[in-house]
Amino acid sequence: MRVRSYLVIALISLTLIPLELSWTRIFSAEFFYTFAFLVLSLAVLGLGLGALSLRLFRSIDRPGMLGASLTLAGICALVGPILVFALSPDFSTVFSDLMTTVKIMLVVLILMSTYVFAGIGLAMLFKHNHDDMPRLYMADLLGAGVGVVAAIWAMNLFGTPAAAFLIAVPVLIAASIVTQRWVKIIPVLVALTAIALSPAADGLLELERDERAPVIYKHWDAMSKVKVYDYGGRYRGLNIDNVANSPVYPFDGDFSAIDPDSVQWGIDASYLIDQFDSCIFLSLGAGGGTDVFQALVEGATEVHAVEINQHINKMMLKGDPGGYLVVPEPDSSALDSVATDTTVGTVAEVPVDSADTAVLVDPPGPVTLAEFSGHIYSDPRVKVVTEDARAYVRRFENKFDLIYSLSSNSWAALASGAFALAENYLFTTEAFVDYWHALSDSGFMMMEHQVYVPRLTSEVMLALDRAGVDDPTQHFAVYDLPQMRRKMILLSKRPLTDSIRYYAFGPLTEERFGQIHLLYPPASDSLADNLINQIVTQGWRSVADSARIDISPVSDDRPFVAQLGLWRNLTGESMEKVIPYAEFYGFPLSRLVMLIILAVVLLIIIPANLLPYVRTGPKLKAAPWLYFFAIGVAFMAVEVILIQKYGLLIGSSLYSIATVLLTLLVASGIGSRFSNGVPDSVAFGAIVGWLLLDAFVFSELIYAVDGFTLTWRILFTGMLIFPLGFFMGMPFPKGTRRVGELIDWGFAVNGAASVLGSIVVLFIAFAWGFTVALAFGALIYAVAWLLISRRGNWQTRPPQVAEPTTTSAGESTTVSHRQWQ
């Protein structure tokens, strides 16, 4: 019978972790990543609240309630996201509009309900089988680990919305296992409903929005939501996560018909390409291939197209797996937002905010995206790479003549909602050192971005100084592109001449001042006070106090380049309407959201976990309460930091999350199984020691193996994490052995502390980096070690072996452990 308990627990976890992953993707893409982080961080508090309710309300603790709670968890998992989209709160007015605030509170409660009911079920199983906790906790963690892989597999195979519905099935299977007789039909019917609704999930879990053009193709997997726009049949564009856009040029594949001198590029790199007899070109974030197309037209002999999104590369290489894209009739409304430009005798219809404005030929009829773009990715000069750009660059030394980065880390990367406001490593100080080493002796790098350039300027100066460059200011220039609302850095391996600065992206004439001009060196004395020039001439520290955004350089140890907000910009006026991208203009949105979550946990959830002290019955002493609190904070703090830290080695956030979570959870499950045979001092000593090694030693190992292929980097990451995870799985069952049936309360405290830990460690990482954050995790585990070392009883009085209940006839009886197995 206990085998059934293991299976039920594993099935519950097989729903909970995938649910969090799929919901994060959906709400990040459809609303925004900050919204997803807020509501889901609060929603997962329900797991601990469900366990707490079992301790506070004894009427719940009945055998029949296990199946009921799991069935309700499945129903809420299925219905919850549908209700969220029905409410569709406007996150921008959350601080100024009472109705929006109420809606978001309802969203949190709706999503939390799944975790509350699942928490009740887990707490029941833990409480009534506490003597077998090493195996039960192993089942919990292994189920969660398998759930990570299952979630990614389901999102890639069925699509993210459909996967969100199907993920409810495991917990419903668990409900059918523990329910009796005819009642089993209820969770079975709900599971069948989830399966039946999954094909319609795209329409149910999507916001209505005004699209910039007809959408002729849509694909949504674990990496991103990709849409293809058609601009009147003459031009196409990729949209990623409803945020970032990448144009796709129509081309018939005949380069001989193109006169490069007649083509007008939005950001013209032809002069830089012409500086080399055989230019080796690297596109960081190739997207729809416009960078690649320009390089080929202008004569580059070798082009590396690096794009992290595998599905985009498949579309550009082989076409669209979903079938042919049917070109609709030109829609005048879709062309209201396009500009016309005569190139090669044809009319180019291009969105006004696109980076380039060159469309060359009339496309044939219905075509795939690969055919539409003239199969440029199949050109023998092009090497298509599906990988994180930073991880790819680190493999090369003195290789590339031109590195071209056009909004590589787009807002879509932020919208991915990867755990805990994670960033990537494209824009750190160490990244610029890597770019510098990857350039040929006379190479150039162009990096453009909408909002990061002031901070990047601080990093470029620091990076060149670290690289041993005598006068860093002579090796870069910064341009303003007013019409595109962008800024751009030009980095040169050799000192820049006035001629190169002037002609690098087309002559800097007075007539083109509104299109492009220099910020550093300033184009005129009137521009000398611009922020970029001040950073270069005075140093970032001198102007940081007056800057609207955070301009401090970020590092691989603190890679939060997008966290540009400053507390001094938090005013009543700024909170009236908070746009999703407010962080990029100095509003501390992420920190404010984290502060809200922190306040909810400290002011509501933690006091609630003290309520059992005012109830009759057995109680935890202070030491065990603090122990379960400490290991909850520490486990989640370490998990969050490891996911982000090893993104540097693995590259893709998707692979990073999968590798770290799978390894950590599976290793912890195995460790739980053997926890009884390992002394407390060995378990906690190993955790603290390994965390300190990870904080202060393993970072150097990461750089030592960064030239390995992705497979070997994933295996190496697993080797570094597995021993730590093995011992991190032991503290919870060790504590259970001391508290017995009070583990439901310990589980509740642990759940609240887990959310608190994820927030506190992010504040630490934002301020001082991952090294200090991991040291913090080691410190909290050391505190837990001291607490469990205290001898004596951890309860105010021994718990009862069996609790009285009442039969339908009013006779007193008892509930034995066997009924819960």
How is this fold's topology laid out?
Layout: H1 2-30, H2 33-43, H3 45-56, H4 63-87, H5 98-128, H6 133-158, H7 160-166, H8 169-178, H9 185-197, H10 201-204, E1 215-220, E2 225-230, E3 236-240, E4 244-248, H11 270-273, E5 280-284, H12 290-297, E6 302-307, H13 310-318, E7 338-343, E8 346-351, H14 369-372, E9 382-386, H15 389-393, E10 400-406, H16 411-415, H17 429-438, E11 439-449, H18 453-466, E12 476-481, E13 486-492, H19 498-503, E14 517-520, H20 531-538, H21 540-543, H22 589-608, H23 622-645, H24 647-650, H25 653-673, H26 680-696, H27 698-704, H28 710-728, H29 731-739, H30 743-768, H31 770-788, E15 804-806, E16 812-814
Parallel strand pairs: 5-6, 5-10, 6-9, 10-11
Antiparallel strand pairs: 1-2, 2-3, 3-4, 7-8, 11-13, 12-13, 12-14, 15-16
What does this structure look like?
The structure is a single chain. By secondary structure, the chain is of the alpha/beta class. The chain is 50% helix and 11% strand. It contains 31 helices and 16 strands. It has an eight-stranded mixed beta sheet with strand order 9-6-5-10-11-13-12-14, sandwiched between helices. Strands 1-2-3-4 form a four-stranded antiparallel beta sheet, with no helix packed on it. A hairpin with a 3-residue loop joins β3 (236-240) and β4. α8 (169-178) packs antiparallel against α9 and α23 (622-645) packs antiparallel against α29 (731-739). The longest helix is centred in the first third of the chain and has 31 residues, at 98-128. The N and C termini lie close together (5 Å). The model is unreliable at 322-360, 410-420 and 801-821 (pLDDT under 50).
